[in-house]
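Appendix C. Worked example: Peptidase S26 domain-containing protein
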Amino acid sequence: MVSLSTLCRYAARKVDYSISLTWKKYNVGQINNTEMIDAAWKIFFQSKLTFMHWNKGGEAMAPIVSTTGGTLLVRKLANLSPMPVFVGDVVLLKDPEKSDDLIVRRLAALEGYEMVSNDEKDEPFVLDKDQCWVLAENQSLKPKEARDSRLFGPVPLSDILGRVIYSLRTAVDHGPVENSRMAMNQDSPVLAVELDVEEMAKNNKV
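Step 2, the predicted output written as structure tokens:
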């Protein structure tokens, strides 16, 4: 049973999401100013704040994602400014090398961070506006194996599709994903209301 305070926090997250997504649609010309209120209400009442994503797995994000794959619950992000993602968050993003694919990686740095290489031959640099640096969870992998920013460099924030908040590896092996403290505070009411482990298990291909 979800408490009233949790439901109120969840409703607040839905309000934030519906306003952000409505404003985004207005800015790209999908709706006009007379349609904004109706669009916001429609999003609030008809949209969920999460979606399920099947990840094929691999060594890069073990143990968050099983090497044989698993189903992830992803928190939707309508707008990446002001920043709804934080250093330490596990995110689902477009594959920089294969535009039709999606990958899961952890945010290691955001715009304004100075990046310093372990290789003295590489010059330090600062991440530009709307850029981020993502890393595989398994840091023992070489860059080519990990396929993270050490290989393909900074990633546009606009390539992030959502924050991974729950991982189901098997029907008996699942749990919340450890993100930044700020993100976990924001996502806790969303998990309480929208998490359906049985439904995730039905969609699991393992």
